[in-house]
Amino acid sequence: MADQAEHAKAFAELHVKGSPLVLFNIWDAGSAQAVARAGARALATGSWPVAAAQGYEDGETLPLDLGAANLERIVAAVDLPVSLDFESGYGRAPDEVSAGAGARGFFAPSLVDERLIGPWRRAMAHTEEAA
């Protein structure tokens, strides 16, 4: 099984201009294995399916340790690069997010800064209601 440095290199090499990389969202070790057997070259977690499979709502309601343990099982189950949907980083600084993800065996965390987007969305909703 490749180590994280090899997976990171392979993931970067999959990004080729004119040849889009299609990532299938997985939510646990079983879905990761099924998608890997179907021929995927890399995998991605989605925050909603990971949370829902554990009985939680999306939006960082899944406890970080539970989510991290699930992701560790995913990484151990397949020999593919796994990109992580880390929502808005669970309130952590970018360097903490990167270090924590790498230490657990996954990389390329995609982040959505809901702390900025959420208030903007609420403000837009109020503006639309007023219009």
Describe this structure as you would to a colleague:
With 131 residues, the chain is α/β, with parallel strands linked by helices. It has one domain: Phosphoenolpyruvate-binding domains (TIM Barrel, Alpha-Beta Barrel), CATH 3.20.20.60. 51% of the residues lie in helices and 11% in strands. It has helices spanning 4-13, 29-37, 47-53, 64-77, 94-103, 114-130, and strands spanning 24-26, 43-45, 82-85, 107-110. The chain has a four-stranded parallel β-sheet, with helices on both faces. Helix 5 links the parallel strand 3 (82-85) and strand 4 (107-110). The longest helix is centred in the C-terminal third of the chain and has 17 residues, at 114-130. The radius of gyration is 16 Å and the shape is globular. The model has no long low-confidence stretch (mean pLDDT 78).
